[in-house]
Design a protein that fits this description.
single chain; alpha/beta; 3 domains; six-stranded antiparallel β-barrel; 8 helices
Length: 361
């Protein structure tokens, strides 16, 4: 079988390529070029699109002895990831662009490239697992065995068709083993550190990126309390997210947090930590993996952000593109724009993008 390997230049995708080649697959390496320096507005040294990372990916393919391609998706990435990311922030939401990159770039456009190149599989360096469940007749997405590295949360967008043609060879091992394989294979990136930030905002300053990219300054506005009383002035809503405590600049006897963002009135609501605790959320852009639809109330667990510890809940599907998730216990800072992902043990059931803790009836 022929496999297209998505290669960022990092150690994980490099070892994924090595593992697939050692298993006898006919492999083709491929790096997605997503943006240039002028888009990010700073040096690309530590990002997936840096010249160094491209050179590392090419070096690995040469060592393994497989063909290598670079695909230019700069325009697609701008239209389908960066601009929606900015739009979400301007509307008071906090998006996860890595999920949208998986949805639109890796597992749509690169998946189509896989087919165009006559490959049978798309392989990435994600820590997750795929298996076919005979009983349900469906492909399942599972957590990685190394839970500390598990990336199933950002992969809930995969469809049955995609899961049938995707492999994650690192899902059965821990990171130590991955680095061991890279070192034994003589890869020059064996000791490279893992990237932590959003790739096109390597310094973590999302507001600064939005202003540099758009050329606009988000207007200042009022901090208000739950009753609408003005408490002070904020720097622009793109500087804030639900649950934020630092950087508010408001004197107070007790700790204050961002509890709401309203782009229409350009206000940021401030309250206590208790004000952030909610039991219910609604989500759209629904993708279910384990079933076509949730017909009856479903008991499972859910994560509301990547680093969130999953919590028990009951899920219903009032509409085709709407999930209602009710947690057994209140959860802190349920944030519009983030994704809720549903789990049954190690199995990912599906998920959606959070729109809020209530919707208009």
């Amino acid at each position: 079988m022929r496999a297209l390997i998505a290669m960022s230049g990092g150690v994980d995708s490099s070892v994924a390529a090595q593992m697939m080649a050692s298993r006898g697959y006919e492999c083709v390496g491929c790096t997605m070029r997503l943006y240039e320096n002028d888009v990010v507005g700073m040096d690309l040294m530590d990002t997936c699109c840096s010249l160094e990372n491209t050179q590392d990916a090419r070096s690995v393919t040469e060592k393994i002895g497989i063909p290598y391609h670079i695909v230019h998706y700069e325009n697609l990435f701008r239209q389908e990831v960066i601009e929606p990311f900015i739009d979400e922030y301007l509307h008071g939401r906090t998006p996860n662009p890595c999920i949208e990159c998986n949805r639109r770039l890796k597992f749509q456009h690169l998946y189509e490239k896989m087919q165009a190149l006559g490959c049978d599989l798309l392989v990435t360096g994600h820590y997750a697992r795929v298996r076919f469940d005979e009983e349900s007749g469906r492909y399942q997405l599972l957590k990685a065995l190394d839970l500390a590295k598990d990336q199933s949360y950002v992969l809930y967008v995969l469809t049955q068709e995609q899961l049938a043609h995707v492999q994650f060879p690192l899902g059965e091992q821990d990171k130590h083993k991955t680095r061991e394989i890279a070192s034994e294979s003589g890869f020059q990136n064996a000791g490279k550190h893992d990237s932590q930030d959003i790739c096109f905002v390597p310094d973590g300053d999302y507001a600064g990126f939005i202003e540099r990219y758009s050329g606009k300054t988000c207007p200042a506005g009022d901090f208000v309390d739950a009753d609408g009383n003005v408490l002070g002035r904020h720097k622009g809503i793109i500087h804030y997210t639900l649950g934020q405590r630092r950087g508010l600049g408001l004197p107070a006897a007790n700790r204050l947090y961002v509890t709401g963002i309203d782009p229409e009135s350009n206000t940021v609501t401030i309250g206590s930590n208790d004000d952030l605790m909610k039991t219910t959320l609604y989500a759209r852009k629904v993708n279910l993996i384990a079933m076509d639809r949730i017909e009856t109330p479903l008991r499972c667990s859910a994560k509301i952000r990547y680093r969130h510890k999953e919590q028990p809940c009951t899920v219903t599907q009032p509409e085709e593109d709407l999930l209602k998730v009710v947690f057994d216990e209140p959860q802190r800072a349920i944030t519009p724009g983030q994704s809720v992902v549903l789990y049954d043990g190690d199995v990912v059931l599906g998920g959606g993008v959070i729109v809020g803790d209530m919707i208009a009836e």
